[in-house]
Design brief:
This protein is an alpha/beta fold.
Length: 958
């Protein structure tokens, strides 16, 4: 193995279809119009020296190293800023150019430390490479004059020198090594879209500055790593490279955080990760990253990670480390005993949206074929299960319609109940780039998120009251229908016209107008009408939505309403449009695809279908139960009733992530055997009897499926520290249960999935190696996958309009609980925080805070930073207040990343009518000053500390 070197063409690729032919160094070259001469030369195999140019950002032309000569033109233009033209004759290497480049390089080196042997970038420094490329052998200018290199000059303090900024936990900024090429500034602007960096000063005093001469940590920098990746010297360097040294080989793999599915090069020394570098050929991220994927992988070697199996008879007992054989035998005996005592249906399992497709598939196979029931569910139950229901009803598939590249063709983007800047930051950067190019943005969210207003982006914001999504979307549809904005040709051709007429008559009712619904939604009717007109008439219009849509009692209804709106305006079935759920976890789409719901086998085919079930029975050589099993909420209720007594949980912390924590505690406490298969002793493990140590994404092979249905390889870069990959653990557990599964590699599991699943029929590891990734459906009709769905027609045939009547949630405010709580995520943390809390990301978010409007805070005597009691009908907790006008009066907001807060002790059992997805986003609460943790928090913390005791290992005497 060796390092994977990606070619840097110097400037971005032109998308023109017009071709231009020119001559470079005597060779005829044909490239798209708009291509720079630098890129054309590189595509022909000639590398022109450069420092300020890189193909991730637009040409800048400041370093003066990439000079060329063009016959018939005077001067020596920069090749990065000079576009190709027909018939040009270009020379990249002449005596004149050699002399100029050597002089330019000499000036750079005259104000640069010559500590190459001890520099962290030694072996990976473009300045060093270019000095060699131009043949620099001597520097005539010394350091006697002004310089940025030394802290002291002629015995006194050097005012031009600046100390190294080490405030950021992941990288350093050494101003003495900066050549002011502006690549970092441009990457922050053009790639990330944060505009956190600038060039301060002029001439010799120019320097890179985070904000107004702030530290990197104290600035608006979001630590995406784009600046570090762009830096051609050691000015911006990962601390891991400084500590470990340069990597010696790399492996392309897929990020294990959000549903964007970024591709990374894991750059290694032996089995140690040196750094994760975003892969330019990754079709989801196109070479960009966020702070989590780029830097927050340290949890893989965290001291709290459990590496040995553990068991105990009672949750009050301390854990006892045992061998794998003993742990698996103990677990199997417990489950067999439960089934003998309570019946076959008394056990079940929950698959993980963090594990691979292959691992998820094996868990549901173990439950259906090994346990003999269909009591299998996944975390999508509590996030995007309404997406599956709503889109399958209207379009015929349970997934988004577009690839992420599609946003580059959008003229209007509507974001509903999502904050991509925090939860899907790499997609947000791609979106903001399109918005800076002129696309319009509509944001429907109770909170003024980061997407509403960012540099050069101003959205039309509809700040609705939590729980009124359906009313707002129906009002938008009312405007579209009553103002004659329906794309009638599309509807007549692609949809059921009779159903459309019924739907149109419903939404056109005066009671659904923006003016009539404003009293419920709180949205200004003028703004709502403007949003509807922009969406319907602004060109290619795309909808992206998140958990603010699905986690409601009318979550499925809202998804249907979104689909209705897209169909009515003809915004389905081509690039730049569509309905796109932003999936929260790396493989939540895949876990659904793999048959993790109790009523569906792989590919969303119902378990009751005899023909489908017979396929699986023939492949698995076992008879399957045709009755759907229990959903997660049903499992909890059955446990409390005493009929469901055993649970296998892989890679999911249901105690922290599921609603009404007290109810979950009661359910887990009632069970006779809970098996937790995870990396850490999470909150669920407090009530577990068996702990099976899991493996990280760096320690296994497999595939993830991201939010755009993209299937990508996850490649093993180190040996599993626990001894086994998760798919191997599930096989061993199945064997202990008496159900043998024989696979030597995850590729064999994928072959079985492909044989049983029509939408995956063309998927294989060989194809993924060849193409990099594919988007399902991938089969005979689409052998290389399907980037955009429903082109020419819907999967179900005719698109189905369904009437979406607004029904207010049963969770109401009143005198005791006058405020509405809604929840969400923050950039630096992920889900329940099990991974990110064990990294330096805690620097940005060490605790969950409660956002409250200044008016509501003043009424309650709450000041910024005060401890407050947050109480609902379900429970109460305490956390510190953050006073902000990002939330409206009457609305409060918090995150759920830290278990000491346990925000879900507040949320209730209300759920979506179709899927049981919990209503996390609407909870009636009251806020009052507090002196510290509640009694419940104290009791919870005490139980957790008591439960996490591990018996010391006593070695036998010789």
């Amino acid at each position: 193995m060796s390092l994977i070197h990606e070619t840097d063409f110097g400037t971005p690729q032109s998308k023109s279809e017009t071709m231009v032919t020119l001559t470079i160094d005597g060779r005829s070259i044909t490239v798209p119009e708009g291509t720079s001469i630098m890129r054309a030369a590189m595509e022909a195999g000639t590398q022109i020296p450069k420092l300020c140019a890189t193909d991730m950002v637009d040409a800048f032309g400041s370093c003066r190293l990439c000079l060329i000569e063009i016959e018939g033109r005077a001067g020596t233009p920069a090749s990065c800023t000079t576009p190709v033209m027909p018939g040009l004759v270009v020379h990249t290497q002449t005596e004149r150019l050699k002399k100029l480049r050597k002089g330019v390089m000499e000036l750079y080196i005259s104000d640069h430390p010559l500590d190459c042997l001890t520099c962290a970038a030694n072996g990976d420094c473009e300045l060093q490479d270019m000095a060699g490329a131009v043949g620099l052998r001597d520097v005539r200018y010394g350091y006697e004059g002004e310089n940025h290199v030394f802290a002291k000059s002629h015995g006194t303090a050097n005012p031009a020198w600046m100390p190294k900024d080490e405030s950021n936990p992941y990288f350093t900024y050494d101003p003495s090594k900066c050549i002011v090429c502006s690549r970092c500034v441009r990457a922050c602007e053009e790639v990330q879209g944060t505009f956190a960096l600038t060039i301060a000063g002029r001439g010799f005093d120019s320097r890179v500055s985070p904000g107004m001469s702030e530290s990197f940590l104290g600035s608006e920098c979001v630590s995406c790593g784009a600046c570090v990746q762009a830096c051609p010297t050691a000015t911006l360097t990962e601390k891991s490279v400084i500590e470990i040294g340069q990597p010696e080989h790399s492996v392309v793999t897929t990020c294990a955080y959000c549903g964007v599915g970024c591709a990374f090069k894991a750059e290694m020394r032996g089995e140690e990760v040196v750094r994760m570098v975003p892969y330019k050929d990754g079709k989801a991220n196109r070479g960009h990253s966020c702070v989590k994927g780029r830097f927050a992988w340290g949890y893989t070697t965290h001291k709290e990670r459990i590496l040995k199996p553990m068991i105990r008879e009672r949750i009050e007992d301390p854990w006892r480390e045992v061998s794998w054989d003993e742990a698996l035998g103990f677990a199997a005996a417990k489950f067999k005993g439960i089934q003998q005592k309570y019946g076959r249906d008394a056990v079940g399992g929950i698959t993980s949206s963090r594990c691979t497709n292959e691992e998820t598939y094996l868990v549901q196979k173990l439950i259906r074929a090994g346990f003999g029931n269909n009591n299998v569910d996944t975390c999508a139950r509590v996030c995007h299960s309404p997406t599956g229901y709503g889109l399958s009803q209207t379009f015929g598939t349970s997934a988004g319609t577009q690839d992420f590249d599609s946003v580059e063709h959008s003229d209007v983007v509507m974001i509903i109940g999502a904050n991509p800047a925090s939860a899907h930051p790499v997609f947000a950067s791609r979106l903001k780039k399109r918005l800076r190019q002129g696309a319009r943005l509509i944001v429907i969210d109770p909170r003024r998120t980061e997407m509403v207003e960012s540099p050069h982006v101003k959205a039309l914001h509809l700040p609705l009251m939590p729980g009124t999504n359906v009313a707002v979307l129906t009002a938008l549809a009312h405007v579209v229908v009553t103002e004659g904005l329906v794309n009638e040709a599309f509807v007549r051709e692609r949809c059921d016209w009779s159903e459309f007429e019924d739907w149109a008559a419903f939404v056109a009712q005066p009671s659904n107008s923006p003016e009539a619904t404003a009293i419920m939604t709180g949205v200004d009717p003028k703004d709502l009408r403007e949003a509807a007109r922009v969406y319907a008439t602004g060109g290619n219009a795309a909808i992206y939505y998140g958990l603010g849509v699905t986690e409601h009692s009318q979550g499925s209804t809202t998804v249907i309403a979104i689909a209705n709106l897209a169909m009515a305006t003809g915004n389905v079935g081509r690039p730049g449009v569509g309905v796109n759920p932003l999936r929260g976890q790396n493989n939540v789409q895949g876990s659904c695809d793999m048959g993790s719901f109790p009523h569906e086998l792989t590919g969303y085919r119902h378990i009751s279908g005899d023909a489908v079930r017979e396929q699986f029975e023939a492949m698995w050589n076992v008879k399957l139960n045709k009755e759907p099993g229990l959903r997660i909420p049903n499992m909890f209720d059955a446990a409390i009733e005493g009929t469901f007594m055993g649970l296998y949980v892989q890679g999911e912390d249901i105690l922290q992530s599921d609603p009404n924590t007290k109810h979950v505690v009661a359910a887990l406490s009632a069970m006779e055997c809970v098996i937790v298969h995870d990396l850490f002793l999470n909150e669920t493990a407090n009530y577990a009897h068996v702990f099976l140590p899991g493996s990280t994404f760096l320690e296994k092979d497999g595939t993830f499926t991201n939010a755009e249905r993209r299937i990508q390889l996850v490649r093993k870069v180190m040996s599993p520290r626990n001894g086994y990959a998760d798919w191997e653990v599930t096989i061993l557990l199945a064997k202990a249960m008496g159900f043998e599964m024989h696979y030597n590699h995850p590729s064999e599991i994928m072959d079985e999935i492909a044989a049983l699943t029509p939408t995956f029929a063309g998927v294989s590891y060989a194809k993924l190696e060849e193409l990099g990734s594919v988007q399902w459906p991938c089969n005979e009709k689409a052998p290389e996958g399907t980037p955009v769905m429903h082109i020419g027609g819907f999967v179900r045939g005719k698109g189905k309009f369904i009437i979406t009547e607004y029904i207010a949630t049963d969770e109401r405010t009143g005198p005791r609980y006058p405020l509405l709580l809604t929840t969400g995520r923050i950039l630096s943390q992920y889900n329940v925080g099990a991974q990110t809390r064990r990294t330096d990301n805690v620097v940005w978010h060490a605790e969950d805070r409660l956002e409250i409007h200044p008016h509501d805070a003043e009424q309650r005597g709450v000041r910024d930073g005060d401890w407050v009691r947050l109480a609902s009908r379900a429970g109460e907790t305490t956390l510190r207040a953050l006073i902000t006008d990002r939330v409206a009066p009457g609305v409060v907001y918090t995150t759920f990343h830290h278990p000491d807060t346990q925000a879900n002790v507040i949320t209730t059992d209300f759920s979506d009518w179709a899927t049981n997805c919990p209503e996390y986003k609407v909870t009636a609460v009251q806020i009052s000053p507090s002196n510290g943790p509640t009694d419940w928090q104290k009791a919870y913390d005490e139980q957790a500390r008591h439960s996490r005791r591990i018996m010391p290992v006593v070695e036998a005497a010789e």
